[in-house]
Amino acid sequence: MIRFENVGMRYGSGPEILRDISFHIAPGSLHFLTGPSGAGKTSLLKLMLLTHRPSRGLISLFGADLATTPRHVFPEIRRRVGVVFQDFRLLDHLSAYDNVALPLRVASLREAEYRENVIELLTWVGLGDRIDARPPTLSGGEKQRVAIARAVVAKPDLLLADEPTGNVDPEMGDRLLRLFMELNKLGTSVIIATHDFAILDRYAAPEMRLRDGYMTYMTTVQAQKQRERHPLSRKRSRA
């Protein structure tokens, strides 16, 4: 589904912030993307979403080599991707319901086909009583839940989630992650960028770890062993 080969990325004429990134993501897989703040997690997700171009290397998404794919095809590819941004990117003039329904309207579905699903999804994320509220009246956590509902409502082939539980309490965070896991079971490839050790401990999955612009790919077993050696993980184990 995703293939990166020796990919580098820079902003403008500055130094590369991602260097020699290589990995393959299989359809229906689940991965965590980790690393300290500033390691390049969000930048890597932008490359997967086709909103930024690499400075070098090969990127293939859904079998399409992006270096040779015509630009007018990119919107069609992006429609197969659900994404949760840290800054939410909701449309302030639309209600929570209309923000979540937007990908389905873009896909030319009739409201009768999706209305019940949109309301059910907003209820699942705890916003059943806020479907008519507009983003300026919502809290940060509520905006994040609307953004997550919008990202998953069309059952995308690929879901990219950038710190999806950063603005919600642990109980709601677990509920949202279970939503991602159910989507994954239905065949969606899921990549979750996070630095939350509680999430990493709870859900076993391969880990792509960024540091100083380089990536280390770890299998599920390797990632678990690495976390067991981390002092925060040991502290939680004793607790």
Instruction: Specify the CATH architecture of the largest domain.
Output: 3-Layer(aba) Sandwich
Largest beta-sheet details: 6 strands, mixed
Number of domains: 2
CATH superfamily of the largest domain: P-loop containing nucleotide triphosphate hydrolases
Q: Pairing-aware structural class of the strands and helices?
A: alpha/beta
Helix proportion range = 25-40%
Report Rg: 18 Å
Secondary structure: number of strands: 10
Oligomer: single chain
**CATH topology group of the largest domain:** Rossmann fold
Shape assignment: globular
Strand portion: 15-25%
Q: With helices defined by DSSP (H or I, 4 residues minimum), what is the helix count?
A: 9
> What's the pLDDT, averaged over the residues?
90
Name the CATH class of the largest domain: Alpha Beta
Structural account:
There is one protein chain. With 239 residues, the chain is an alpha/beta fold. The chain has 2 domains: 1-77 and 184-239, 3-Layer(aba) Sandwich (Rossmann fold); 81-155, no CATH class. Helix content is 38%, strand content 23%. It has helices at residues 41-49, 74-78, 96-106, 111-124, 140-152, 170-185, 197-202, 220-228, 231-238; strands at 2-10, 16-25, 30-34, 56-61, 64-65, 81-84, 158-162, 189-193, 207-211, 214-218. The strands form 2 sheets. The chain has a 6-stranded mixed beta sheet, with helices on both faces. A hairpin with a 2-residue loop joins strand 9 (207-211) and strand 10. The longest helix is centred in the last third of the chain and has 16 residues, at 170-185. It is globular, with a radius of gyration of 18 Å. Residues 234-239 have low confidence and may be disordered.
